[in-house]
Amino acid sequence: MFMQRVFGIPDRWRTFGRRTIQEVSKLGIDSIPLVIIISLFIGAVIAIQMQLNISSPLIPAYSVGLATRDIVLLEFSNSILCLILAGKVGSNIASEIGTMRVTEQIDALEIMGVNSANFLVLPKVVGFVLFMPALVVICMATSLIGGYLVALLTDIITVSRYVYGLQALFQEWYVWYGLIKSVVFAFIISSVASFYGYYVKGGALDVGKASTNGVVASSILILLFDVLLTKLLLQ
């Protein structure tokens, strides 16, 4: 019922467009530094661990680059990244809307005849869903660069073998698979956090509880849909 109110037709399209751009900046663009930092380190760690665990002479040396690439494309750049962003973006959304609820700003919008769910939540959902694929692409590229830096700055694996592994047996569908999952997860994060924030009752302490509950619920749903989408898309 809440989502039915959210996906109503906006009263003013110009206001909706302006608010959507603001949400893209706040929820998406402001998350880029966090995504880059996490991706660099995770990509480096994956490359190091793969090299340390693949020591058999029967396994090709380029397997490190290949395994790093597939792990990043299939799981880290979408599922793990969205679990991390659920903490940052989800708590931001839930606390912002929850604060508006307890300070009666949402009640004021309702009194003025504005569909508050549509006015407040729809720009957040649309903005985050639209920008999430860009964050995933940045995460993919930065993670692979992190592994490249390991090959470049250490003697764990040579750069040529790592790069050859990145190119070997590449399947384009893995990239689309990651992008499809990320869009679904972005919708889950933004809608669930908005729901918990919108229906806060009480004071400032309850806003904090709603923010925590929104992050936990989003994380559980992301893991659930990760299993379902993997089964559907990788059969």
Kindly describe this structure.
The chain is mainly α and 235 residues long. The protein has one domain (2-233). Helix content is 83%, strand content 0%. It has nine helices and no strands. It has helices spanning 2-6, 13-28, 32-53, 63-102, 105-111, 116-153, 159-167, 172-198, 204-233. Helix 3 (32-53) crosses helix 6 and helix 4 (63-102) packs across helix 7. The two termini are 33 Å apart. 39% of the residues are buried. The model has no long low-confidence stretch (mean pLDDT 86).
Give the CA-based shape. elongated
What is the string of helix and strand elements? HHHHHHHHH
Low-confidence segments, given as residue ranges, are none
Helix content: over 70%
Structure annotation, total helices: 9
Compute the separation of the termini in Å. Answer: 33 Å
* Gyration radius, rounded: 21 Å
Class inferred from helices and paired strands: mainly alpha
Chain-averaged pLDDT: 86
Number of strands: 0
Count of domain modules = 1
Biggest sheet details:
none
Strand portion, in percent? under 5%
Tags for this entry?
mainly alpha; 83% helix
